[in-house]
Amino acid sequence: MTIAVPSYRSYIDKTHNALAISQLVTIKSVIERYYLENHRYPPDSEAEWKAFTSNLPNNGKDPWDNPYVYTNIANAGPGIMGRVRADKKLNPINTQYDLYSKGKDGVTKRQVSNKYSLDDIILARDGRFIGLAADF
């Protein structure tokens, strides 16, 4: 039991992470299609994003039943840079929009290298990286 339970938990965590990555890829595709059709990224106000996510996998919720977090950077005003996700040097990790899951613990911080963000599943470098924040 002492070996089986931790192994099983590790397997479940890896499965949830893989599912979140897959869902982020799908959501990214939907966002990009929206951009092509509307010449702008989807709005990120709570009501509009909630309506947008109703057509997404699991209604826009990650494997831990938390909503995916989306921030429209491209269409936002000058104060947006204080809200976007950043790397360990506080450089923004995206230029168009942020999209991520808060991960298993449901807690996150702006800086992806923060200990509370390491389990987040993130989209970074404008989609060139999608995965665990600890691997970024």
TrEMBL record:
SUPFAM superfamilies: Pili subunits. Signal peptide: none annotated. It holds the Pfam family ComP_DUS. GO terms for biological process: type IV pilus assembly. This is N-terminal methylation.
